[in-house]
Amino acid sequence: MVPDSRAKARPDHVRPLNAPVAISVTADRHRPLSIVVNRHSHQIERIQDTWIIEDEWWRQPIARQYFALLLDDGTRRTVYHDRVADAWFLQDY
Amino acid sequence: MPIVCLRIPYFALRIALLESPHLNGKPLVLSNPQSGRAIVLDATPEALAGGIRPGMNLREASALCPTVVVLAADPVRERTVSQQIQNRLEHLSPLVEPDEAEQGCWYIDLTGLERYYGTYAQATQRLIACVDPILRGRVGVASARFTARVAAGVAKAGSIRTVTDDEAPGFLAEAPITWVPLPPDVIRQLEHLGIPTLGAFTKLPARKVAARFGPAGRQAWELARGQDNQPVVPPPRTRTVIEDLVMPTPAVSREMLMIGLRQMVTRAFGKAELRGKHVRQVALHAILEGERRSWQRTLTLKEPCGRDRVINALELRLQAIEMAGPIEMITIEFSGITTETARQAAFSMMGPRAAAPLTAAIHQLKHRYGLSPIYHVVEVEPWSRIPERRHALITYDP
Question: Are A16 and B397 within 8 A, CB to CB?
């Protein structure tokens, strides 16, 4: 365990963790068919789970549909479709 | 009609018949006689007909059916026979997947093989011939995995039950609810709710099934309706190194076992396949003195380990071992072989005694680059549904 440094937290000292990464996704009616990760295209073998998050409608709405995917190389990835911006992102949940 | 399900019910009991065919037709039960409370783990139809039920006390079972033959589990033998059958099936089709939930059950995709074997029926006949008739294997053929499994479930021993696409909806609707891939307690609940068949189950509203039984219930509901597009996915091939040792005298103590294991690990890491490499998983299979008894353990290591650390890990994990009997032969199997070691060093430098060098290093880096490049993870909103808001990196600046 790292001992508390007792240094004051400053905004420039804080970095986000697990920030979403924009990716290219081929989708059919907002259901992903293939994704491009690190310049490699992967077909989606199976959508293992999907869930929706809608929050903060009172200021800047957040509306995401997450998909837990099994890719053709056997790896698992979680992506989401940002329904507000109509864009796709990669993010562990 | 490309997907075939091959099932051997009561697999752990049936394999005993390979060595003792005279037991065929007798009431057999699988039990754990070494444990303090011996109960019936599984029973053949002959034993069930005698009133024996899984979970029953072994004494009670013997009283109900005096001719019952009690067999102890032999995991090493089960694994060997299972692997032999899988190898034979893989000679016929490249797509063979063992069922993870049920031992003695395989799915085989025959797509494209009809030109090689003539017809699907001929290919299926070859599949069933892979299994010794005494094991009473049965085969279901359909265009979907779940339908093929139910067909294999209702097929008679040694027979093939084919369900065409036209027959499938009616066939599934009449199948008992026990075939639904849900835990036994959930199936009991469904039976108590007056749902005896898959057809009755599919008449329930999907949303209510999902609300009551969760995602697994919803998936089962879809399967029961014939909505099944699960492909047959063969398990990934893993490279393994196997080492055997026949004990000069049966090992009765942990110390004797460790001497043998040390010798085997040293020998294995001296082989070309393992020299200078590390392993992630070690499986031990021991054959015990006496008839049809074995024991097995799989150790998954926290990180890839070389020879010395594997020995240390074995010593540590086998400290509390209860040996079910004298060990005659032991096999050790190394898998997850890797050349790289992803060793996560403990932050010993963070301890109170060693913190000073780290602090000095950070001060130097800060002086050189203007800020500390060392961060630590802090919780920001761990309850947040938005993943990026849960944690953040904050500069470690002592």
Answer: no
